[in-house]
Amino acid sequence: MAVLLNNRYRILQPLGSGGCGQTFLAEDTHLPSRRRCVVKQFMPATSDPRAQQIIRDRFAREAEVLEMLGRSSDQIPTLYAYFAEGEDLFLVQEWIEGKNLQQKVSEEGMLSEAAVKQILVDLLPVLAYIHDRGIIHRDIKPANIILRAADDRPVLIDFGTVKEVVVSDPSHHDTGTTIVVGSPGFMAP
Fold first, then answer.
1. What is the mean pLDDT of residues 147-170?
2. Among this protein's residues, is 132 annotated catalytic?
3. Which of 62, 80, 130, 166 could form a disulfide with 92 if both were Cys (CB 3.0 to 4.6 A apart)?
4. Which residue out of 57, 122, 132, 139 is catalytically annotated?
């Protein structure tokens, strides 16, 4: 029998990996339906303790944002769980069946202007929803937009780089380190 994460989530297959961890398709063995879900494992690609803490904080922040946003929008995955096992952190969220835009273009070629406009029109309410709550995604790119198979509506994923907009005191001068967040080619210069 395979090992279960949190004595509940059985890994079915890897979905991807990045600088902060790995993502897996899993099933929830505590539910009769064995509902599919996404499990993100925190695994920073650095041994620098300061950088690890920053990444750990971002990972925790992603869980907070998903919990807040996902229950009120069907175009943002719902958070199911957030837990630690040993030194590892895990986030469990709704599985959105479908292809991301990067996959769709790779497999089918360039989209028509009308198709792109429709995707943007369908995505704008999601962006307005998160911006109304003072959240900026900071990594909107084709790989982070899944076209849900059930209705072809875009779902925004990967909230690991979100930023809360805070009104700052102009007399306060931050002398801390700047961390670049986003994906080259999709972030502001």
1. 74
2. no
3. 80
4. 139
